[in-house]
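quick one if you have a minute, typing this from the bus. theres a chain ive been looking at and ive put its sequence and its fold in token form underneath. please have a look and point out which stretches look like helix strand or loop to you. anything you notice is useful, everything is just below.

***
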Amino acid sequence: MSRRVTTGDDIAAVIALYKANHVLREISAHTGVALRVVQNLVKHFHDLGEDELPAPLPKSGRPKLLSPRTLKVISRQVRSNPSLTAREVKERNPRLLSHVSLRCVQQALHDDLGFKSFHARRKPLLTKRQKENRVKFCKKYEVWDLETWRIKDNSEVDQNEEDVFDKFSLELRWCVEQIELALEKKKGSAKQDENMQKSRKTLTSSKTPVIKKRQVMNALFGDYRKKMAEEEKKFKIEQPKMKTKCVIPNNSIYIKKSSEQNCHLNQEENMTQSPPEVPAVGDVPHGQSDLETRSCDSTAGEHPADNIKLDNFKFKPTENSFRFNFSVSS
């Protein structure tokens, strides 16, 4: 069992309690110093003439080989380059570490300076399928030059950035709405409401980085993406299937474009007379459309003067004597 080291503060406390007329056992129980040590300190105090405090005894054990200055130099080098090993540190400082062993440098790094050793994580070897996929990829894009890769990468990065930004904006808006709903209900305590207000201010601030916002969102809602999906699935409204019931009458009126010109004058004459009652679309009797078409065709023959006079248009011979000098064989 290791002995307790008596420091200068312990000696001062023992002498102060002794001057206050405390019993030695009480002094030992109060300070935690052994009774025999208290007796020796009081004896040395009387021997020195009650003017000086007894000096603590020198510590036993071998002194450290590395000074605090050397430890600071090692710490500065390792912090600037964390991948340094103990052997490299010893080789870089031959004047400071030539008298110590490699094991001593390792203990100084681990125990005195608090640097822990790490090594790279072991990665699994490629499987046969992964190798085949990589070979296919290389053969597929072996004709691409550097400029083509740059254009492809830039376009993909821009598109991915836009998609990620839109998705994050939607998630951020959902979290802010949840906070506002919680503040309106006022179910929590005053401290919880205050924390909610701070979180809302952090999320709505344009100066807060995205990483900080994501940390706040995860701390408040946990897996907020899963909750958003569940809420969307819960409140999703199925679109009703629209069925149009359009009733088309069986008997419809069709007027030919060619008959419109022939029926034009006939319609003007009918306008002067009293207009007959026009039945509804569904009440058109069967065969009425055919009768109207026939009437238009029949009236076209009754008024020949209204037809286009094609007889007046005739080709007249010219007085030009120019003729081609070749004959066309029949």
